[in-house]
Amino acid sequence: MASISKDTRGTRPRWVVNFKTAAGAGRRRSFPTMTQAEAYKRQVESGTAGHDDGKKTVREFVADRIAFRYSDPAQLATRQQVEQRMRSHVSPVLGDVRLDRLDAETVEAWALSLKAKGLAASTVRLIASNLRSLLADAVGPARPLTHNPVNLASVRAKIADDFADRPEWESDDDSEVTFWQEDRVAAVLAALRPDLRLMGEVCAGLGVRQGELLALAVEDFNFAAKAVTVRAQVKVLDGNTLVFADLKHRANRKKRQDRTRTVPLPDDLARLVREHVARGRATEVTMPWAHPDGRAVTRRLLFVTRESKAWNRNYLNRHWRAALRAVGVPVERRNGMHALRHHYASVLIDAGIPITAVAEYLGHASAEFTLRVYGHALRGADDRALTAVNAALARRSGYTTGTQTTLDNVVDLRRHA
Q1: Residue 47 pLDDT more than 70?
Q2: Each residue's pLDDT tens digit, 6-31
Q3: What is the pLDDT of residue 46?
Q4: Would you call 20 helix, strand, or coil by DSSP?
Q5: Beta strand extents in 156-278 (DSSP E only)
Q6: Which DSSP letter does residue 87 get?
Q7: CA-CA distance, 128 to 108, in Å (whole number)?
Q8: How far apart are CA 237 and CA 292, in angstroms?
Q9: Where do the domains of the chain lie?
């Protein structure tokens, strides 16, 4: 027998099917709708759950799992991204392999094929994480796989040394993070036209992601408190459809008020934004939330196109690449607009801002992740640490010398106190 329970810990409830295998081991599967949970419960009780999955090809099984797992319209953007990764990077090698014949050797060959494409290490990890997550639904008693082949040590080693320790969403690659110096930031921004130049200044001054930049509204700026509340991002669906959406990594927070973050607003940047708004450049834009049929949301966007619409990041990136070429900066992934966000992080770290605060300003899910990505920026802190400790030692030395009190005298005084 099986039972269904409701899990309300996330932002959306999940229905969990609890059951036992033939060997008596407890199992549970969660579903976004009660209807799906009841259908699976019937399969479990009839002994047909997963009965025919082994005959499916990897392409067929993955397509089924994606459609099932991302059935919520609010997950449309994520679904399209995962589908594209599977279509482009999994199906060409593994697509025609039957699920019950998927072995370590085959998956190892696939992992090597990803590297042969010249993909960034972070991209390889993300594709592998997606596949690992989808194949997890095929593992277990009476299921096609006794274990997940992507989890095998031999496969993980071919994907990345630290693959097993990285959550699926952490796609930043520390080896690719480089910090632009002030002269490069200034040169690239100067090569942009004036309205786009301010967009770059906002990125470098607030550390926002590109999607967050495009969703910034006048109401997000609290000039009196010298703060900006980042509330949304602009997502691109199917190449051209734009929607507002929750911030990255914040959609799973339990409370709605946790889906935002606040960052300090520098005085000079505040002045530039005020002047921009005073010139009438900010415009109200209405778009759906999360998916094309989502509720309509109106925001007075700080940056809009000449047609008074929200910016499509693909179009903005064309201007960015042109600016890179104009000043002789290589047009490559590490020099994308995201480099301004890395520059912001390096400025904070160099100023001695605590890593926990840097993580909060950047909107990272944890300070540990921030430290992993930007930890090499702390290497220069050794000299600053030595200077600070030496100064403290010198002050203490001055105190004791000034009173003619040695350490031995202090100990002796304590004994007689």
Answers
A1: no
A2: 887 665 677 888 877 665 667 777 77
A3: 66
A4: strand
A5: 221-222, 227-230, 233-237, 241-245, 261-264
A6: I
A7: 11
A8: 8
A9: 50-171, 176-345, 382-415
What single-letter DSSP state applies at residue 145?
Answer: B
Q: Say if residues 199 and 193 touch (Cβ distance below 8 Å).
A: no
What tokens does 410 get? 């202090």
CB 303 within 8 A of CB 312: no
Q: CA-CA distances (angstroms) from residue 53 to 49, 124, 392?
A: 9, 26, 67
Whose CA is closest to 242, among 304, 196, 199? 304
Tokens 């099917």 found at: 17
The mean per-residue pLDDT over the stretch 225-235 comes to 95
Per-state percent for the chain, helix, strand, coil, to nearest 5: 55, 15, 30
Phi, psi of 72 (to 5 degrees): -70, 130
Do the Cβ atoms of 340 and 200 come closer than 8 Å? yes
Ramachandran angles phi, psi of 311, nearest 5°: -75, 140
Provide mean pLDDT across the span 107-113. 89
Q: Count CA atoms closer than 13 A to 245's CA, side-chain side.
A: 24
Does the pLDDT of residue 51 top 60, yes or no?
A: no
CATH placement of domain 176-345: 1.10.443.10
**Residue 404 Rama label (left phi>0; alpha psi -120 to 50; beta):** left
CATH superfamily of 50-171: Tyrosine recombinase, N-terminal domain (1.10.150.130)
DSSP string, 336-378: STHHHHHHHHHHHHHTT--HHHHHHHHT-S-HHHHHHHHGGGG
Count other Cβ atoms within 10 Å, centred on residue 105: 11
| pLDDT-above-70 percentage for the chain | 79
Longest distance between any two alpha carbons in the chain, whole Å: 89
> CA nearest 302: which of 276, 282, 332?
282
Return the ∠ at Cα 382 (arms to 377 and 388), rounded to 5°.
125
**CA of 26: how far to CAs of 17, 30, 48, 140, 330, in Å?**
11, 14, 17, 11, 54
Indicate the pTM of the whole model.
0.65
Residues 196-206: what's their mean pLDDT? 95
* Residue 27 parent element (H or E): strand 26-31
Q: What pairs with residue 288 in β-bridges? A: 296
Pair of tokens at residue 56: 């499916």
